[in-house]
Amino acid sequence: MLARGPASIFVVARAELHAPNQEKALLETAVNLLVPFASDDGEFHGPTINEFFPPAIFFPDTPFEMNRIILIRFIAVAVMMLLFWAGTRRMKIVPTRLQSLVEMGLDLVRVNIAEDLLGKKDGKRFLPLITTIFFMVLFMNLTGVIPFLNIAGTSVIGVPLVLALVAYAAFLYAGIKKHPGKFFRNSLFPPGVPPVLYIIVTPIEFVSTFLIRPVTLTLRLLMNMVVGHLLLVLFFAATQFFFFTADGGFKLFGVGTLAFGFVFTLFELLVATLQAYVFALLTAVYIQLALADEH
């Protein structure tokens, strides 16, 4: 479900003052579809976990069922593909602004993540995967602060889990290809450890190397996006309540919640970018560990 932003609040307020009854009813119906916190019961409604499980919009009760979050994911991927196509379709020696922006993003991943951790040869080999993960996470994270979308495509476990499994598969592929026959043995039975300690070391290595990594990748991204959305909804829903429902001096609290909502929106932009960077960075780190000569 969507968090109510300041712009939609003022649209509803103006409609209540000036619109005829029929137009007012139509407007409120439309806003309630876009902003589920618009209610007339005079009570404050905070965010709930149900927002991450919206009803189906297209193809209900079929394998192709789509809700609002799935639609947002398609929008994020479409915008990402459009920007990269527009920025790279006519490359110039003196780049346009869009081309410069795309090149800066690609260089960030190539230089600071792939080549820095994996070297030029292996960095080039795994660059398409790391770049795809970074920009897919980034664009889906940013939908959490875009008006009328207002929820991250990564705030439901499907996308974080799939990306974590892809990163995990790349880790296994890199290790097995580089060290066939020795990758699992050296991972579970590290050289130089006294054999008697393998009773303790091997289960720890198995859990930390082959179980914990995809779980932590998934939960780190998912929880950051869930908490960020709930806080933004809380601030802007409280703003609506104080401005339009609360009595007397309590309306002044709306100024504070609106300010906090604006500041936290900027913070959420930073978190969205940082989480994309961390996810791509950890993917490269795991691949680096798989390629290490100790295996």
Automatic annotation (TrEMBL):
Matches recorded under SUPFAM superfamilies: F1F0 ATP synthase subunit A (SSF81336)
Keywords (A to Z) from UniProt: ATP synthesis, Cell membrane, CF(0), Hydrogen ion transport, Ion transport, Membrane, Transmembrane, Transmembrane helix, Transport
GO cellular component assignments: plasma membrane; proton-transporting ATP synthase complex
Coiled coil ranges: none
Topology of the protein relative to the lipid bilayer: Multi-pass membrane protein
Pfam families per record: ATP-synt_A
GO molecular function, one term: proton-transporting ATP synthase activity, rotational mechanism
Top-level division of the source organism's lineage: Bacteria
Residues passing through the membrane, by range: 69-87, 126-149, 155-176, 196-215, 221-243, 250-270
Subcellular location: Cell membrane; Membrane
Signal peptide limits: none
Entries under InterPro entries matching the protein: ATP_synth_F0_asu (IPR000568), ATP_synth_F0_asu_bact/mt (IPR045083), F0_ATP_A_sf (IPR035908)
Function of the protein: Key component of the proton channel; it plays a direct role in the translocation of protons across the membrane.
Family note: Belongs to the ATPase A chain family.
Protein name, as recorded: ATP synthase subunit a
